[in-house]
Every structure is written in C-alpha cells, then in structure tokens.
Amino acid sequence: MKNVIITIARGFGSGGKDIGVRLSKLLDIPCYEKEILSLASDKSGISKELFEETDERVKISFLRKMVGSVPVNYKVEPSDRKFIHDNNLFYLQREVIEELAKTESCIIVGKCADYILRDKKNTIKVYIDAPMSYCVSSIVERMGVGEMEAIRMINKTDKYRSDYYKYYTGGSVWNNPINYDICLNSGYLGRDKCVKIIKELYDEKKSV
C-alpha cells in the first residue's frame, strides 16, 4: 500500500505512547498525539487551548451530555456560534485524522483514531494494555509518585478515556478487542516485542 496508518489505543501506564514513539523512529514515520490538536488548530484558526479544554469538559460533563449517539458529521461553519462546540472541535480533529490517512504513513495515538478509520483498509488498529502492577510501576518510575497515587491516576485516566471514546463513537466500548486488529499485553511481551510485532504487521500491510 502507498501509505499505512497505525492507530494505538492504550491503557494508562501500559507504555502505548512510548511504543508509538519507538515505532516512529524505527519506521521513520511521524507519531501524532497532541500534535493532532495543533494541526486542527492550524486548520480551523481556533486556539489549541480550546481543543485541550474540550477533553477536560468531556471528562467533567460526560454523564449529563451522553444522550444517545453523537452525530458523526457534526460540523458547522466559523460564522456559527456553535463553531467552538465540543462536538465540532472533535469533528475538526476527525478531519485532520482522515486527511493524514489519505496522504502519509504515520502513527496516531488515541483520539478515537481506530474508530474514525475503522473502514480504511490501510489502517492497523492496535490496543495496548498491561496488568495493573506493571502500569503502577511504570507510572511510579516515570512520574515520581507513590503507588496509591499511581493507582488513582490510572483509574481516573482510563475512565476518562473510556467515557471519551463512548461519547464520540456513539456508545462503543473503548477496550473491546473487537474494535482492534491486534491487542498486546506490554507487561507480558515487553515494549520491544510489541514494537517488533507491530512493525511486522506494518511491513506486511505496506507490501500489499
């Protein structure tokens, strides 16, 4: 294939972002996470801070906003007062992801990219998680917090990611293995092995 996209969804502390960065260096292709917000900001003229705040608003108000499925084509023009509505900001990010999938090989971490690109044949959809003990050790080492704080952060972040995914996909379950082409246990396999497995899938897809 001309270009191949790897999407990575990940449990907090599993090392999914680190695995994406390692793949990026190995394959010499970009890895996007927060960069998606910058690209959406550049495209729309809306400040990056508003895109970042959208994530926080979803986390705080998810339960009272979740009333059925969100329109997947919720896009309005800049003149409309709803231009900076959370759903529209998400749609602008969606446009960026869809454009990337058409133009270049890359890695996209989070942002419901697996759902957005679910029908694209040039996509490898990956989910990475690990046992709580592994995730706790990873967070303690990386962020310098105690074990209890690490557990709190993991539970809070994973709940947010689950709520965010469910809201913007109209009810899909974030860690459902059916959503992905492959699910990897980084605690069992190790991050290097995860990188190797995903690279093999990438090389195979690229050769088609």
Q: What can you see in these coordinates?
A:
The protein is of the alpha/beta class and 208 residues long. It has a single domain, classed as P-loop containing nucleotide triphosphate hydrolases (Rossmann fold), CATH 3.40.50. Helices cover 56% and strands 11% of the residues. The protein has helices at residues 16-27, 35-44, 48-65, 86-103, 113-116, 132-143, 147-168, 186-189, 191-206; strands spanning 5-10, 31-32, 106-109, 123-129, 182-185. Strands 2-3-1-4-5 form a 5-stranded parallel beta sheet, with helices on both faces. The model is unreliable at 59-84 (pLDDT under 50).
Short description:
This protein is of the alpha/beta class and 208 residues long. The chain has helices at 16-27, 35-44, 48-65, 86-103, 113-116, 132-143, 147-168, 186-189, 191-206; strands at 5-10, 31-32, 106-109, 123-129, 182-185.
